[in-house]
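Supplementary Methods S3. Input chains for the assembly prediction are listed below.
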Amino acid sequence: MSVTIRDVARASGVHISTVSRTFSAPHLVNSNTRSRVLACAEQLGYRPNRAARALITGRTYNIGLIVADIANPFFPPLIKAAESQARKHDHHIFVADTNEDPAVEEELVRALAKQVDGVLVVSPRMSNALIEQLSHEVPLAVVNRQIAGIPGVVMDVAQGARLAIEHLLSLGHTDIALVSGPRGSWTSREIRRSASAAARHKLTVIGPNPPTEVGGLAVAEEVLRAGATAVLAYNDLMAIGLIEGLIAAGARVPQDVSVVGIDDIMLSRLTRPKLTTVATPTAAAGRAAVDMLLALGDQQGDDRRTTAHVHLQTELVIRDSTGPGPGPHSAPGGVAS
Amino acid sequence: MSVTIRDVARASGVHISTVSRTFSAPHLVNSNTRSRVLACAEQLGYRPNRAARALITGRTYNIGLIVADIANPFFPPLIKAAESQARKHDHHIFVADTNEDPAVEEELVRALAKQVDGVLVVSPRMSNALIEQLSHEVPLAVVNRQIAGIPGVVMDVAQGARLAIEHLLSLGHTDIALVSGPRGSWTSREIRRSASAAARHKLTVIGPNPPTEVGGLAVAEEVLRAGATAVLAYNDLMAIGLIEGLIAAGARVPQDVSVVGIDDIMLSRLTRPKLTTVATPTAAAGRAAVDMLLALGDQQGDDRRTTAHVHLQTELVIRDSTGPGPGPHSAPGGVAS
DNA sequence: GTGAAAGCGCTAACAC
DNA sequence: GTGTTAGCGCTTTCAC
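Predicted structure tokens for the full assembly:
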């Protein structure tokens, strides 16, 4: 039904292998022949069948991108950047959604393995050991997880969390809550580790929670019960949900409770109060991860070089959801200075 | 490198064709043999190579999804629903982003054609004629465009736009502006057509514009210059940008200008003022479109049945960005009743 | 119910 | 520089 290499060969009066070479190794073909073949191909609307080609070469020119939740606003900019970068290198991308389920992650990696040159797993929920194992079945890179021997790009949320906590401390907050993310999230553990280290006072950890608006909303009461005057949330979506919940419960943000998110998704500039948050470079991460994956494929068979790791800086963006806390200077009966 | 049908055949002491049948036509194989083969396959970690299979059967179990902008919040819920529905039918999906460029759309459809069972083009920007032509090269369905002979699902934005305009009229607005969307958008034309018909008074059309927050922000001045007291925007993102622009220009929303969006993206509930908008069922559209595409593939070779069209209802969601206009009842010097 | 053989569209030695 | 041949992993006649 579709036009094949054979049709082009017939039309241009050469053998199919010459047509093949015209497309896969043009320099090996006489320039006259080449233009004739090209002309015929063009006219017939011939397009090489990549799947057939891959059967021989082993290169599919596809990559797999596995994310926890396409509709979570954190991911689309990353997906877009990855797709764009992939296409720059003439690759197409499969996108798959795991719904935060580690079992689905594993299944998807295996299901895609044969059709791709590599798989990118973003914010994986599965264990390091499993990732390690899967990386033997298919070239694999990871975003938001640091694993020895597995190429990956991480955003430095530890640094970001530290900045966020320091910001809250400097505002005079002493009772800080950390609303953590989903079980299995490396990012969530990093945030917790770093925030705990940075908080000189009490740090109440609430979680794990689903990384969604609803997840944030659901813990509002608990935050208030804990007596926290400031909160660092696992991501912006949760922070926004939390703010909704706090307001619904009668608390004002930031007058009664300060809230900091992480990611700086588009939403964060647009909600009221505008969210103070830690900006993570998601588009850059998507691009870097694709580059990494493609590089992995190129060094085929080499004695494995030192696996690359990319570390991206994060940045605190102070907006309107954080304000002064009941610190030493504002204690009841304090001196007006 | 990878385990093939041949390895399984060797391990289970049968011919490769028996292994093949075990996976593609299990009923043709003796149940004892079958379980033996299955056991060996399992143990070796065998997975059929879909690309190789497709070479013969013509079915890839992949579908292509082409959208204008992955990072535009309108699309992710649709992509997620489509992916989920596709996977229910054991299909994987390629996602590609055209950056609103019709030429890229065309190129992507052709580039993906050989690797998929069908392509879904969402909110296409290319011409009907081109879509028609492409549909001969690969099974194709369309979202947000009505074309005779091409299966598609549309959201009834005409109905939505009418409801929105009627809502504004009932609030007493007489000078209404329509901020239209990108050139080539069927949805934008539909909205314009329907809004024009519904508006009994002046309707100032501003556009075409890029369907983004910036696109909305950019026309704020023009809206004010036009003297409009109410605006219907092509989508929520533009409406939100527009509101930002209006506020920056010193106008209050909804006191001075009412704004209605279209789509009801997640953001719309979270910005302040909360956006009045026309809710479009994007997830349902994604699912329906995938079903349609898969059905297309199944009726292979049939004398083409009447092509299906799905029409999804929309709904006006009244929130806080619309309010009373300077209608008859609120004219200066009017009677306090 | 199973094996043998041909072939999907293409590439990659190898001759000439 | 081009044709010949084998074969990637798999399905699908066709015998038996």
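Chain A has three domains: 5-57, 62-155+282-311, 157-280+316-336. Chain A touches chain B through 46 residues (CB under 8 Å).
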